[in-house]
Design a protein that fits this description.
Layout (H helix, E strand, L loop, with lengths): L1 H25 L6 E8 L4 H16 L3 E8 L4 H13 L4 E5 L1 H10 L5 E6 L18 E5 L5 H12 L4 E6 L4 H14 L5 E6 L6 H8 L5 E4 L3 H5 L1 H11 L3 E3 L2 H5 L4 E4 L2 H16 L17 E4 L1 H6 L7 H5 L1 E2 L5
Parallel strand pairs: 1-2, 1-3, 3-4, 4-5, 6-7, 6-8, 8-9, 11-12
Antiparallel strand pairs: 10-11
Length: 328
């Protein structure tokens, strides 16, 4: 009888060990899999490219990742709900793709590592102490090269001398306010003047653009999430009224903008993914990885938009610009 009891005990222990091995196999080849909570304030081409780059970097790093992606649909209330949900689910890392998303994540946790991108002014948004020092649990890649706005303003001043530049932005977006302040500073001492309109949501954008028509010579749309979401409205006004539309990033050229000194959002997303891979694999903590700017900017032009907006072509642009075609 005792032999049978002993045999039964051995069988039970053996089955338990097999079950444990089976669980490890589900978690990946090395027994390590991770849950990443990924969020962005709204879905539009630039942010989507950054998220694609982030995922690609983690895939290239060979990490097994389960993503919980959630868009806040441009609603600040949703930002808090999403961030609190990630904390309740105890995700391994939060990818915050935009300034509001990063702020929401940081307000929700000081333990879970956060990697951001598509953030214009990480210091001004109180995400990191400086661009040389990460926060306690947060680091990432900005989407604004330090020279981008100044270079863009100089371009407008050179080729549209004496122009009044129309700015449309959501004053509730800290990243946009920071950019507008930079535009104002860069405009000092130039031949340019500024005219502003603020909007609260995407539905306000078309009316704001139309209200500027009689007062301006050039539109300049910075990387404001609200305005970019409704950029088609500004493009329509710019084309109808023959007003050059300067934009803040290359994806907006595809939608009908004329020119930008921009960055590649896939690239900054990929770099953020490399940071996340280091954190998840234990090679570095978030506070050990210094935040970064984009590596470089490039002049991008949409020739079709230039024709639509009746812009006199300058031969310099043939040599200096990379050309992007608009959406069909």
């Amino acid at each position: 009888m005792r032999k049978w009891i002993l045999l039964l005990a051995v069988v039970i222990v053996g089955l338990s060990l097999l079950a444990a091995c089976g669980d490890d196999d589900v978690s990946g080849e090395d027994g390590d899999s991770y849950v990443v909570g990924a969020t962005q304030i709204v879905e539009h081409p630039s942010l989507d490219l950054a998220y694609e780059g982030f995922q690609e970097a983690l895939e290239d790093a060979g990490l097994e990742i389960e993503y919980d992606f959630q868009s806040a649909q441009n609603d600040q209330n949703n930002v808090k709900t999403i961030s609190d949900g990630f904390v309740a689910d105890d995700v391994d890392l939060i990818f915050a793709n935009s300034t509001p998303s990063a702020q929401g994540a940081l307000n929700a946790t000081d333990d879970i590592p956060i990697v951001y991108t598509s953030v214009t002014d990480p210091v001004g948004a109180d995400l990191v102490p400086s661009m040389d020092e990460a926060g306690e649990n947060i680091t990432g890649v900005s989407d604004l090269h330090p020279d981008a706005i100044k270079t863009t303003v100089d371009f407008i001043d050179q080729y549209f001398e004496g122009a009044t530049v129309g700015l449309i932005y959501n004053a509730g977006e800290p990243n946009s306010v920071a950019q507008i302040d930079s535009v104002k500073e860069a405009t000092e001492g130039t031949s340019l003047s500024l005219e502003e309109r603020t909007v609260a949501n995407a539905a306000d954008v078309q009316q704001a653009a139309q209200s500027l028509v009689s007062d301006i010579d050039v539109f300049f749309v910075v990387t404001d999430n609200t305005v970019v979401e409704a950029l088609d409205s500004v493009v329509g006004v710019a084309n109808d009224q023959d007003i050059p539309l300067v934009v803040g990033e290359p994806s907006s050229l595809e939608k009908g903008g004329f020119v930008t000194f921009g960055i590649d959002y896939h690239t900054i997303g990929y770099r953020a993914g490399e940071m996340a891979a280091d954190i998840l694999s234990g090679d570095a903590a978030a506070n050990e990885i210094a935040p970064e700017y984009p590596p470089e900017i490039q002049l991008f032009i949409n020739k079709g938009a230039a024709e639509e907006q009746n812009i006199e072509w300058n031969e310099d642009w043939d040599d200096d610009a990379q050309f992007i075609e608009g959406e069909e």
